[in-house]
Amino acid sequence: MSQELLIIFYDVEHGSSAYLRTPDGKxxxxxxxxxxxxxxxxxxxPLAHLWNRYGIRKLDCVFVTHPHRDHLDDIxxxxxxxxxILYTPRHLTDDDVRTGNQGKEGPIVxxxxxxxxxYSFPVSPSSDVTVPANVxxxxxxxxxxxxxSRSNLNNHSLVIVITYAGSKIxxxxxxxxxxxxxxxxxxxxxxxxxxVDILVAAHHGREAGYSEAVxxxxxxxxxxxxxxx
Length: 229
Description:
By secondary structure, the protein is of the alpha/beta class. Helix content is 23%, strand content 18%.
């Protein structure tokens, strides 16, 4: 069995998506955006691409960093993969999610809420993907800010930190400065991002996703490569 970690990032216009194949062959997806670079195909589905191009029929885990519609658009293809685990901000109520989407794209949001209710949490220790022994020695941690106003769901995004073979990647959802400042007060978060190699730019590379406080941490821990998705 391959000992490599494969990560594919999909540039899906305003949303985002990433596919991970763990060193022991498990399949994961982070976020459910659709579309393609420069709007060449507004209907492009990363999930359909995984099904048709790579023959993937089962997802072991899906992370939805936060329930904004642009991170949910591929939700109708979710069920075909029968994901075993769904990680998403659990402190947000159904009404928080509806209000945070301002009534737009109701069917997509309601489908997500229906799916979220069907998953129990926490997961069993034997299937928990945050346990390295369950994913071929890869470390994956998800940190969730929760103190900001729930009128802005961006600031409730999971920050996912992936560590393997001496490399570290951060996928931060759409967090803005208030959420970064909250997380940077946590010693466990500071320890997790120490020595990061790749930072996927928060909030699709927008200025709102930048935090001077994170930059100061980077200066202490070394250079970071940034990718905007």
